[in-house]
Amino acid sequence: MAAGYAELLRTRHAARLLVGTLIGRLPNGTAAIAIVLFTRSEGGSYSLAGALAASYGLANAIGQPLLGRAVDLYGQPRVQLPAAVVSALGMVWLALAGTGSALPAYAAVVIAGLFTPPLEGGLRALWPGVLGGREERVHAAYAMDAVAQEVMFTVGPLLVTLFVSLWSPAGALLALNAIGVLGALSVVVSEPSRTWRSAPREAHWLGALRSKGLLALLGAFFFVGMALGSIAVAAVAYADDHGNQAVYGWLMASLGLGALIGGVVYGARQWAGAPERRLRMLVAMLALGYLPLMLTPGPVAMSVLAALSGVFLAPALACAFIVVDRHAPAGTVTEAFSWLVTFFGVGASIGTAAAGPAVELGSTATSFAVASVAGVAALGVLTATQRVLATAGRSRAVAGSPEGVSGVPSDRLVGN
Length: 416
Description:
The protein is an all-alpha fold. Helix content is 77%, strand content 0%. It is built from 20 helices and no strands. Helix 5 (46-74) packs antiparallel against helix 6 and helix 8 packs across helix 17 (333-361). The longest helix has 32 residues, at 135-166. The protein is globular, with a radius of gyration of 20 Å. Mean pLDDT is 87; it is low at 394-416.
């Protein structure tokens, strides 16, 4: 397994692009906890902290597809780096102005969220050209990408707490965003990013959203995001029930570990058959894994159940990346991947909002039931739209890669 990923990373530019993208995404991956810690250090209430974090998330959800479309139209360097700088300046404004006056604080986080660069979608657009258009290698890279996300979301909060202990919450905001700009810079000055051009596109105001298959996928992953968002809150309630906040960390770490293992195993082999059908099976297993969480056994057993519930998350994400690539209209690949980020994030926010009342009106088990219902809903969307998904707009290994990146004419880089 590791050997396969090591081979991918030995490909020219691959390691740099993956690491640069992960570093560039650190400000986004840690924004919620960093904003909350900073607001509390300024004497702000939990309500203000939550509202500022939610405002950042909403602005990010709006900005990602818009910036993704700009990348498809104008190229990566002209969009990604300026966006990263403006986003970082928004956080600098927050760190310097504080939260004593609400309006500047809200304006700062909205700017930071709105201009978060779509590095995630940009990387997935680059993989085909970097890997020579070999479909099996691109699919393995998508799996590696999903695994790397789990590492980032595990390490990111630890970095925030480390920077806060070394300096201050304001210092952590400044440091994380400075590091993020450096990560974005590393990506956009690379040859693949500089030479990448999107495929010719049809002018259409809906852009990527005119694809029915993509809309079906986005609907399903809205509910997958909702499931994960609800688990984050349900795990806090579970930890409160057991009188130990450390239990929350164990549960979330176990979920991340399960996703990490699942992603590594999934990416270690080639898979036959249509990815749309495979995605339906993976989401079915994901939904099934959420059901036992409602049993809420003791912490050790619950940690095991959390790990099992995460096993199919990274594989489902990796397979979803393939499906996005197959259904995105020509010339909209970065935008399409950015829409996936948006729908997933909005779903997570709604799941977080739904789990709180579920605890208060019912119990901790009821809050975990939100994840189960959301998982079943995701499967329901994929099942109801399977005919739409079965008709891929394009079947390809390359999305918008220039001939100059891989050295192979684009019409020779078509997979099945």
